[in-house]
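Open question from group meeting: does this chain pack into something compact, or does most of it stay loose? Before anyone orders reagents, we agreed to write out a predicted structure and look at it together. Recording both the input and the output here so the notebook holds the full record.
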Amino acid sequence: MGAGLALRTAGTHPDRVGAAAGFHGAHLATEAPDSPHLLADRITAELYFGHSDQDATNPAERIDRLDKALTAAGVRHRAEVYTGAHHGFTQADTAMYGEEATRRHWEALLELFGRTL
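Structure tokens returned:
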């Protein structure tokens, strides 16, 4: 839910968000009329997304749809697919936890915030 909330907040309050990130996000770029990616043209923040390649809730076509929407809107962003990572890879108390993906996500998040905020 966090990645979707970050994307929605960046699009709903562009004057208040300088940077946002999402990790193992789900349903970020669907065909629904209220899909978060449809706010891309309102976003002024820089964004980072760390996607899981083992995540049925965020297949490659949705990752591509999100990237295309952000690119078309001129949003500064970077998206990476974490190989071998599952949805929920940052949650250490679950079977989905991935130590390498979690380390990588912290590095990306701290770099983004250190540079932009």
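Observations to bring back to the group:
DSSP finds three helices and three strands in the chain.
The mean pLDDT is 97.
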